[in-house]
What we know:
about 55% helix; mainly alpha; Arc Repressor Mutant, subunit A; 5 helices; 3 strands
Amino acid sequence: MTPTELVNTAAALSAPTRFLMLWHLDSPLPVGRLASSVDITPASCSYHLRRLEDVGLVRVDRRHRVHQVRRVEQRWLALCRAFAPES
């Protein structure tokens, strides 16, 4: 992860709602269920998902009537490593 990517990702996660959304994505979820898990409206959830998608932390499958959201594990793990204390 480049320094610019790291800064953009950190900016996307500066909103507590976005961090919680990412945290809840242990497995793919419909947008509506993800919204209810963090107690926001589906419209607000879509707004925050766009920000997470822009930095590559989630993918939204829009092929079906019910949109599925999944976390992009490689990006999430890279972010965790970037902030992990060195041992």
